[in-house]
Amino acid sequence: MEKISRTKVIDLLTREDFGALVNVKGWVRTRRGSKQINFIALNDGSTINNVQIVVDLANFDEEMLKLVTTGACLSVNGILTESVGSGQRAEVQAQEINVLGACDNTYPLQKKGHSLEFLREMAHLRPRTNTFGAVFRIRHNMAIAIHTFFHERGFFYFHTPLITASDCEGAGQMFQVTTLNLYDLKKDESGSITYEDDFFGKQASLTVSGQLEGELAAMSLGAIYTFGPTFRAENSNTPRHLAEFWMIEPEVAFNEIEDNMQLAEDFIKYCLQWALDNCRDDIQFLNDMFDKELIDRLNSVLSDSFIRLSYTEGIKILEEAVAAGHKFEFPIYWGADLASEHERYLVEDHFKCPVILTDYPKEIKSFYMKQNDDGKTV
Amino acid sequence: MEKISRTKVIDLLTREDFGALVNVKGWVRTRRGSKQINFIALNDGSTINNVQIVVDLANFDEEMLKLVTTGACLSVNGILTESVGSGQRAEVQAQEINVLGACDNTYPLQKKGHSLEFLREMAHLRPRTNTFGAVFRIRHNMAIAIHTFFHERGFFYFHTPLITASDCEGAGQMFQVTTLNLYDLKKDESGSITYEDDFFGKQASLTVSGQLEGELAAMSLGAIYTFGPTFRAENSNTPRHLAEFWMIEPEVAFNEIEDNMQLAEDFIKYCLQWALDNCRDDIQFLNDMFDKELIDRLNSVLSDSFIRLSYTEGIKILEEAVAAGHKFEFPIYWGADLASEHERYLVEDHFKCPVILTDYPKEIKSFYMKQNDDGKTV
């Protein structure tokens, strides 16, 4: 096979030098056609879009073509051609096809759509689906947006330690980290497990937050952000809880609460705009397949200023809703923490806009939050 | 105090609108001067450089000035002035000084230099030193360079899971992750600890690599990189081993070994160039204080092409060195893995240039490495 430098599908689909000899590599999504001409939809993950490979069957070996099935991995040399029917601007008239990896008919990702539950059982293959491909490409772009946003504003990316000896005693929600042989745990006279022989010479666990280190760094470098894995050993199966997730924590010296609120709003809008600018095809796919209001909602968050509201004002709105007949599962009153249903009422029903709630009762917030002059809120 | 929008020191030092009223906030590094005029070196972490605050003592309250000591946190309003003596282009003639945080004389970071051993005992304060500030600013810039390099080349940033159930059995070098109560471990009939009640329902540990997931992602998305924390429970106190560190793993579909070597060389050069372009003051500090050849060495890596050499050729050079009288601690022969001293001889003594060694004996490399036609090397 003639060696031609590979072009990624995302680049191929915007090239206009029709007639050029190109090479494209990827995985077969579908193959269809007549007895004379076949059309192969080839995807290489660089974009959700496939490039159409047009195959004049008379020019190719029949045994080779039998291997061109869904999931097979191909290298194709051919002529870049203006397309009329593929839904894309460009397609490739195949001249040489090399099957780099064949794929028999037990390959589970056939043409039909698959449920997320089905795909959960094949985590090794699901990145090849449109849905997971879209999610991963968007997640990548959000990570780049996050770094770009903070870097452009003079924040330093700070890596806080994940294994910690802080707050190990009695922290039931943390994962313990150990190299001890659990079959041979040593105990002291009082019956307590001794950790002298453990890796760090003391009890250790996975941190639930880099905040403390982040604050120290901000008090030195001025403005930092963390962006890394975080762990919570909460045994709850809700869409809001993960045992392992990536969290962003900015810490800024000399910021007032107004600065923090502006930073949060600017940050979210920056990331949304980045997604719309750089992941349009992937977001359109999610909009079409999962959530018909997705793009409208993203645009609406971008267009409005976030509502900034005190907790006390928020409670008043919620109490008025109850008085007007709105039913909440959990009771709401001044002093209560807001449940998800209350937050959603304020955001989705009342304001139809993102809301920043401030000045919470000190009793339901952390000890280190700055207390207001009223002595009651933070 | 009049409210003026804060200017970071890094921006202040390049401003040329002398005469402007500015606000600067930061921490006092030193204070010196006469009975009439004091000079405060103020640092806010945005740069290794301090801004000089010029204080006409007659204009300020004596009790307030007593609080302006090394480590104190200040907000200063003043006039931006062209500097003649501070080593910087601009300084600030103080008009108002507000001590945001005082600092008594037990503050351990006084003017004199401190050893790294001393600073190790005060991890909460050492980010305020020139050395750690420089390292953290450079580390931030390297992270941004890494993301920019891969993003510009169409790689997707991929977050691989850190908690894993793979390879738990007998992996002595991994950290076990558990929520089991170690005082009440359940065992089955054969005496084995049962993990049904552990968080994931099976034995889990911290991964030593995201490579497997990364390869799956590359086989879908085309080109990915990981960049995240990695854990090794190796109990060795060498400068080469850390229990927790951040690792980069690119995985690319369709790459040949030549492509991989070019990627590695381009990547390293891109990061070095970024450091020289964006961290010049911090690198100059490290050059002056720790390693007088640092900048020369970085430039030399940038200017030369990396040597690409087979293991067999490398062994030949090392054997010739031994024959010529060079002493190594560990014996060297075809089939032996290279020790650090051998690698350093090739890089520092023989080639004086980075070296990529390929085609190792299959016995000393992982099972999944692609075997060469000779049947002996990979």
Describe the structure in your own words.
Two copies of one chain form a homodimer. With 378 residues, chain A is an alpha+beta fold. Among the domains of chain A are: 9-101, OB fold (Dihydrolipoamide Acetyltransferase, E2P) (Beta Barrel); 134-303, BirA Bifunctional Protein, domain 2 (2-Layer Sandwich), CATH 3.30.930.10. Helices cover 30% and strands 22% of the residues of chain A. In chain A, helix 4 crosses helix 6, helix 4 (130-152) crosses helix 7 (280-289) and helix 6 (257-278) packs across helix 8. Chains A and B meet through strand 1, helix 4, strand 6, strand 8 and helix 5 of A and strand 1, helix 4, strand 6, strand 8 and helix 5 of B. Strand 8 (176-178) of chain A pairs antiparallel with strand 8 (176-178) of chain B.
Task: Describe the SSE topology.
The structure is a homodimer of 378-residue chains.
Chain A: H1 9-12, E1 21-33, E2 37-43, E3 51-56, H2 62-66, E4 73-82, E5 90-101, H3 116-120, H4 130-152, E6 156-157, E7 163-164, E8 176-178, E9 204-206, H5 211-221, E10 223-231, E11 244-252, H6 257-278, H7 280-289, H8 294-303, E12 307-310, H9 311-323, H10 340-351, E13 355-358
Parallel strand pairs in A: 3-5, 6-10, 12-13
Antiparallel strand pairs in A: 1-2, 1-4, 2-3, 4-5, 7-9, 8-9, 10-11
Helix pairs in contact in A: 4-6, 4-7, 6-8
Concise description?
Chain A has ten helices and 13 strands. By secondary structure, chain A is an alpha+beta fold. In chain A, the strands form four sheets. Chain A has a five-stranded mixed beta barrel with strand order 1-2-3-5-4. The first copy, chain A, has a three-stranded mixed beta sheet with strand order 6-10-11, with helices on both faces.
